[in-house]
Design brief:
Blueprint (H helix, E strand, L loop, with lengths): L1 E4 L9 E6 L2 E10 L6 E3 L6 E5 L4 H10 L1 H7 L7 E2 L5 E4 L2 E7 L8 E3 L3 E4 L6 H28 L5 E5 L6 E3 L4 E5 L7 H13 L8 H10 L3 H16 L1 E2 L2
Parallel strand pairs: 3-5, 6-14, 8-10, 11-13
Antiparallel strand pairs: 1-2, 2-3, 4-5, 7-8, 9-10, 12-13
Helix pairs in contact: 3-4, 4-5, 4-6
Length: 243
């Protein structure tokens, strides 16, 4: 049985919830000045309801209720957040690794030959130490690939930073500053390379016009490979949570 959990106020909340036969799903709510009508989508971070600025929340609720079956059919069974912890199998550069505690108070995170990643420190600090290591690895790879594509396109990247965006893989400013999602280190290298090419290409074309996509393809001829991977696996990758 399907039931809809209604918000208490008529003002649009930042999120709402839908229940499918006892399973509660959080739907993020975004108000957009560009939106002309209600829109329900499934970006990597999870269900998203986009509503026009001047719309009534009651109407948005009704729209979501009418499309609840559409949402239920497309949500993966058992989808939920994945945490960094001992014993989990974590993808790094697209390959699965088991996370283990080294038992040592000090030391560095080590990648062992048998596809295990050993993390030192007290158990309560392991998630943070692993997260910091993943970010360092991501920053290294993304800085290198950003510089590579910048040279090919004849532009300059001023800075590369990492974020924990809930629904974006990257963003680029007109000043040459690029933000990337740390989770890209979990994806295969060609996927990280695609996102780097995508963001650097924005320094040539600050839009998603045909000219922009031609620019991405100019620096990365097989861009569709990484783009297709993210469309298929991006939601699962985005489910990994920072501590």
């Amino acid at each position: 049985m399907l039931s809809f959990l209604r918000a208490r106020a008529n003002k649009p909340p930042s999120e709402t919830k839908v229940e499918f036969a006892g399973r509660v799903v959080t739907v993020s709510v975004k108000t957009s000045a560009r939106a002309k009508s209600f829109r329900l989508s499934l970006p990597p971070a999870g269900p998203l309801l986009t509503i026009p600025v001047k719309s009534r929340w009651a109407d948005a609720e009704a729209f979501l209720h009418r499309h609840a079956d559409w949402l239920a059919e497309r949500l993966p069974i058992g989808a939920g957040p994945q945490i960094l912890a001992p014993g989990v199998e974590l993808p790094v550069r697209g390959l699965p690794y088991q996370i283990i505690a080294s038992g040592q108070v000090r030391g560095r995170v080590e990648v062992l030959p048998d596809r295990r990643i050993s993390v030192p420190g007290a158990p309560e600090h392991l998630p943070r130490r692993l997260y910091d290591w993943l970010k360092a690895e991501a920053l290294h790879d993304l800085t290198a690939q950003s510089a590579f594509h910048a040279q090919r396109l004849g532009v300059k990247v001023e800075s590369v930073r990492l974020r924990s965006q809930a629904s974006r893989w990257g963003s680029c400013s007109s000043t040459g500053s690029i933000n990337y999602n740390w989770r890209l280190i979990l994806a295969p290298p060609h996927v990280l390379d695609y996102v780097a090419a995508h963001e650097v290409a924005h320094l040539v074309e600050m839009n998603h016009s045909p000219a922009f996509w031609a620019t991405v393809e100019r620096t990365l001829p097989d861009m569709e490979r990484g783009r297709a991977w993210l469309k298929t696996h991006g939601r699962q990758l985005m489910s990994w949570q920072a501590p």
